Prior knowledge:
With 437 residues, the protein is α/β, with parallel strands linked by helices. 49% of the residues lie in helices and 14% in strands.
Amino acid sequence: MSIQLSTEFSAPFYTKEKYEKIVPEAQKALETVRAHYAAGQDPLGWFTLPEDYDREELARIKVCAADIRKKCDVFVVIGIGGSYLGARAAIEFLQGNFHNSLRKDGPEIYFAGTSVDGDYLADLLKVCEGKDICINVISKSGTTTEPAIAFRVFRDLIEAKYGKEEAKGRIYVTTDKNIKPGTLKEFATAEGYESFVVPGNIGGRYSVLTAVGLLPIAVSGADVEAMLAGALEAKKEFAENDIEKNICMKYAALRNLFYRDGKKFEMYASYSPAMELMGEWLKQLYGESEGKDGKGIFPVSAIYSRDLHSLGQYVQEGERTMFETILQIAKPAVDFPIPKADADIDGLGYLEGKNMDFVNKNAFRGTALAHQDGGVPTIVLSIDCADEANFGYMVYFFELACAISGYMLEVDPFNQPGVEAYKKNMFRLLGKPGYTK
Ligand code: PA5
């Protein structure tokens, strides 16, 4: 497994002097990651997770996942932000956009608790009608309103369908390990639900390789051990201090270089629709980690070619404040040929004998050249293939790059104080006790 970083379409936008000036800052930021981890200063548990994850918990995850795969038709994952994005990104990356329809064994997997939209929940309940259900409610704090409401709805459904005792064997909880009053952990303990731990020193958006992501991913049938092995490989590779041998540090350096040059937006784009949720995961990881103290690169995401026909106009000619990071899959799973036709009525004869990936990679090159002409630097990150090891490797790459980049920006990449503001207003408007003013 590996990621290749190409600066073919971004190097024309910076000088050797500018690059050499920023390199020591990136090296210092990597040192800060190590120093803060050693001092227990920041929630950096993810930094060594590929080496020191809880093996007993992983074994339990695998046993429960196998059991869930046998006993239900529908598995509903309830969580928001870091408590669902990584799992969903992994499942779509590995199994594609139609994973539920194409699944040969194991349950269909759906996600809830990301909004308080009644229509969404009502539709999902219809999907579950007449089917056996298990749920996994995930919340590190155990107090987040959106998943709590969805949990209440699905708990009622499961208890009504199976009775309270059998329902207990269909409800899985992933949360903080400490029992605090009014939290999910307190409830799970009282009810006797099977529970998994979100380690205290790993923040939500850095938690995909804990039970938060691994239980749903294992239920999808994916090999979670291979995923952790991929992350471990990345951890070893990205310990390197020489920036030319450490593309994780280089990526962090380049994005800060562009930011200082007035490129305030980073477009994460992929030519593989299966990476759409990866884009969502990246937006949360980088947006929540960096957007604070009046600073930060604003992450956006797109799927090309689709969004070249919507956002493409802006990227090419709008305000010149953007750089792009393209996520490529070097080798697609299927070598899909362009079909032959008897007559060339559609004018595609020149593509006969070629495959879709050839067209897709040229769509990418053509776009990158156009965007370069339009003043948009493009960093290219190319992943070998869409398997578990590469997913784990990629997760570690982006988590470490995010921490390095956050320290370079001189923000705390692990807190999210701004997320509280909307909650306070919402609670006041809803009349939650203690939030009247
Ligand atoms: O990164 C984070 O910590 C957040 O985005 C959380 O994942 C998100 O707010 C959900 O929180 P919780 O898991 O406590 O319900």
